[in-house]
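User: I'm putting together notes for a lab meeting next week and I want to include a structural view of one of the chains we've been expressing. I don't have a solved structure, so I'd like a prediction I can at least talk through. The sequence is below, exactly as it appears in our construct file.
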Amino acid sequence: MMRQSTVQTTGTRARRRVWGSAAALIVCVAGCETINNVTASVTDTVKDAVTPPPPGKREVDVYAGEPDVRVRIAKSQREAAVSGPQRFVVRAVAGSRSAVRPASLPGPLMIVSGDRGVVMREATGKEMSFGFGVDVEVLASDGTPDGAAEAAGESIYLAGKAYPGFLTIRPSWNDTPAQFDVTVSMPVEAYLPGVLSKELIKDWPRQAFEAQAVAARTYALQERSRARREGRTSDVEDSTADQVFGGTSNLVVAVEATRATRGMVLTDNGKLIRAYFSSTCGGRAASAAETWPMKSGREFNKAGPLQGQPRTIACQRAPLYRWTVVRPLDDVTARLRAFGRGKKPEMATLGRLRTIQPATRNSVQRPNSYTIADSAGHEYTLTAEELREALNWPLTGFPPITRDNRIHSGDFEVLIYGTEVRFAGRGFGHGVGLCQWCAKGMADSGMDWRSMIEQFYPGATVIKLY
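Assistant: Thanks for the context. Below is the predicted structure for the 466-residue chain, given as structure tokens.
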């Protein structure tokens, strides 16, 4: 019998503001394209206005309005070409010890960094330097002589890709000042269409996009909250390390789904949940508490709505609902040993692989962990996600990991015969929370996003945060 979920919805609009943070393995469903050219107004007044909740207050009670989010879009760059608006405002990050006044510069700009500090080079060759140790912001603006931002509302292009917000250039001053990271700051509602258009297939039903919007918003804000508490300079990555972000998007269904669910987030006991999602559950949802290590600071993985429970399954049409991979036994053994050298020293001397068997399962019979036995009679236990990582470990001298030979999830049965290993698996991704292909199937059957959320995060409460 299907267990009834208990997602609650409150019509009370939260009057304060929250922030999120963290990292997770999240899978982009398919070759989803990013469509540019929609602009978003971002002024220099978009700042962090949140403080940790005082005693007796819930995390969700600290939001005063729509929060911003800082997305790292480039790492260890030696130069960056910025274009789009006719003029830019460039200025030192607030709090920097810089005597350089903000300035309005004509675009395009080439940005470099080094012992001289951050240098902005105009097309004419004219340069402006901010000095060693100073991080710099770049804003799209009509510009005025003193560099005041006028909220031009234009996307900024970095390496040919449009972004709705302003850029921050942060060199590695204490290590390699000639290299810098780039983050883009924007309102979270301007960020979401660029996530949805990369995480889902563009012609999927709107309800699937709406459910994804609620999950992606909640995840981003929960991660943002952690980042701010920990003093990090960015909130989320633009990759599967968090959730894929493709920059400015004018995909209509993504924009409409974001607007239709504006401010809607998922909570448990007054806290934002870490609303994980992945491509395909394969018919069995995973449990967060068993999927990732429960070390200090990650207690959020214990939240009830994130534990695998019986629910409606609708991802049967997913390309990887069921899959089979066959690999040479020597290949599998070598990758397990290499993983041991990198992460599990006790496995570095693993003998020839003999068996891989599920050790524990969750309430829907998805494996939480596996026992690995070798020819010497030694046994080792790995979580399902650790084993997936180990089996896909890159190794010189062996075939590269591709779609054809990748172990796509941590839910599989293993048969070793002769010199080959056969993996019969289910799904694609970690399997916790929202299943994107299930969302597509549920939407095809007429289910709305709230009903989907009840299935994916049973027991969570939906609130309008701002």
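A couple of points you could mention at the meeting. The first helix runs from residue 188 to 199. Helices lie at 188-199, 206-230, 252-260, 288-291, 329-342, 384-391, 436-444, 449-456.

User: Perfect, that's what I needed.
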